[in-house]
Every structure is written in C-alpha cells, then in structure tokens.
Amino acid sequence: MGQFTFKLPDVGEGTAEAEIVAWHVAVGDRIEEDAPLVDVMTDKATVEMTAPVSGIVVSVYGEPGDMAPVGSALAVIDVDGQGVADPAPTLTAKPPPPPGEKSNPRSLPPLAEVPKKAAMAAASTASRSAPVARILGEKPLAAPSVRRRAHELGIALQFVPGTGPSGRISNEDLDGFVAAGAPAAGPRARGRREGIEQVKVIGLRRKIAEKMQDAKRRIPHFTYVEEIDVTELEALRAHLNGAKRADQAKLTFLPFLIAALVKALPDFPQINARFDDDAGIVDRHAAVHVGIATQTPGGLIVPVLRHAEARDLWDCAAEIARLAATAREGKATADELKGSTITVTSLGPLGGVATTPVINHPEVAIIGPNKIIERPAVREGQVVVRKMMNLSSSFDHRVVDGYDAAAFIQKVRGLLEHPATLFMDGA
pTM here? Predict the structure, then answer.
C-alpha cells in the first residue's frame, strides 16, 4: 500500500486557481476509483473531480470557500494494492500570524496528522453504521448534487437521516427516505423563534456577489421602463403553439423579444456592445449573442444563446430551453457562460410591475420583461381589456445616451405591438 496525492489539475481557460465548493469525502472514508471526490468552481462553472485511484482518504486540504491554486494538493489517498508513489504535498504549514493580524481566509490549511489505518477504518465504519442525530435548526451536510435532487423532489434535508461522516446525507440516504415515505408536517404551536444562522458566502453565491458588486461599482446605470400592449403578440404565440409540431419547443415570450432585439439592434450598434473601461474601448458586435439570465437552485447563471440573428423562433426557443436545463443541472460549460453582448432577464410569472435590472458587465445593456396582465386600456375612445406588459431596461450611461436608450426601446415596442413586422424585411 502506498500514498497518492491528488492535485488540482489545469481546468483550462488560463485559470490559475479554483474555489473548493464541496467535499464528497472526509478523512477516513473509503473511496473507489472514478467516485466523486470534490467539487471546484471556476467562472461560475462547477466541475466535479473524481478519484483516480481507490483507497482510504487520509487527509484533505481546504474547506468550502477556500481557493486552491492549480497544481496544489487537494487530498492524500492510501492506495489499494502495491500503491502509487507520489511526491509529498506541495503545501506546507504556515507560522501563526502576528498578534492582531488576521489570517488569510483564502489560504489552504496545513496537512493534518494521518490517523492509523485501523482507526480510520473503524471511524469510517462507525460513522456509517447508523444515522447521526441532528438537532432542530442544524444545517444538514450534503453534496450539491444531493441538495439539488432533494430540491427537485420537494424534500427538506433537515428531516433526512444521514449515515455518512458527521451525519452527511448521501443519495442512498435520500432514496431510503423516499422509500419510507416523507413525514407530513404537523401543526405547530405558536411560539417565539430564536437563533441566528450564519451562512458562509461561497461558490456560485460568492461569484454572483462579486460580479454584482463590480457591475454596480463600475457602471452608471440608467433605467428605462416602457408599457407595451402584447395582445396581438400573445394571440400569435397561442396560435403558433397550437399548430406546432411535436418536435418543436413551446414558444414563450422570450423568442419574440429576442427577435425584436435582433431587428432593432442594427440601428443602435452602441447597445449591442461590450465596454472595456480599463482600455477605454467599446467593442460593437455585429453578431447578437444573448445572455439568458436563468435562476438555478444555486443562484443566477447567465448561459449564452449565440448568433440569435441566425435563428428563427423555434430554433431560439429550443436553444433557450436547452441552455436553461443545462444551467439548472449544473452542467453548463465555461464556453456556454461567456461572450454575451446583451442580456435578457425575466422573472416569469413573478415579473412584477417593474424592475431595475443590473447590467451584466462588461455589456452595456440588459432587458427585463415584466409580468403580462389584463387591464383596462383606452383604444380609439373606448375602454377595452388588453394584455399589457412593462418592459424594464438598464443601460451603461457612459456608452448609451438616454435618448438613444429610449428610442431603442420604442423601436422594440413597435415590433412587439405589431408582431407581423418581426417577419418583414425592412420593417
């Protein structure tokens, strides 16, 4: 038996480091070759690292939220059989910081002492022999994939017994809980609630926080909201969905909005752009690559629908559905999450009356449709019921003047209110 040191491999795109998101193992666990070892994140894309060998985990480096440089040691495994010799971990223990100086929260911890193999095996067996008790309010331990599956099943992990180390919940525990039947929530007595839950901002949530902070700090936002009558558009959408083939995706409002953007943007090239404010250069793009803001169990992700100008409604709808599913499953690639030239964000049925969307830096514009509702409107002196929607938008005022932003949205409004013009050349 020998020791194998698993090091963070080069994840591509010139990435020098990655964030540890979640461990699938603990010290003392046995792991099989190709089994999940650790999840790491780079540029909003989560990558699941698997074990290249089978054996017992004798040490791990870093906690969720720590940054690991490419090539640094992540775990040491006692290998079955004759073993695989590997150099000792590249990380070394650091001296404690001077009094009054805080340690770097992004640095990785030193190598822990390796327990004796017999003790590790016993600890692993004991930890999985019976579910670990969990007090009310204690956060359950589970991998992101288990949390995502529990969310899809509508199961609160708080009530699922975990048989892994420290009560960690596995997919097998979740299967057993489902097979036994989820307990119904009983009536609760009224009472005061106490306690504060501290949630470390890591992974995708930290990436979102950093990106939003950067966008609001660097970009002077100008927001414009316009009311649009989508009665005719909704009638056309219903007709097309009723006549669509079985292999065609259902049309939502977004493909029509994207079609309107594609027709309007050539007249406003400064809006389909990316602004490198460090270099003072605005790149105006001929291609329309639309970022589709998508809510996932882990947070907001923006996959990119490429070359919208070359797609029809059905192709656009199918690609939106594919990108959304990929993002929600946590399988979006790095290439699918970069290169957008303008972003569309929608809260769907929760769209509200108006929003102030935050620009997806380094883009200069973002468009957000709000909820479609029926309400009275005056048409040719008569009060009639129409389907109305507010279209919210934000622009980078350094690049886009207010007049141009308003003229652009008015152009989009005209196209949506007269949907036949979406399919006419020169309209």
Answer: 0.66
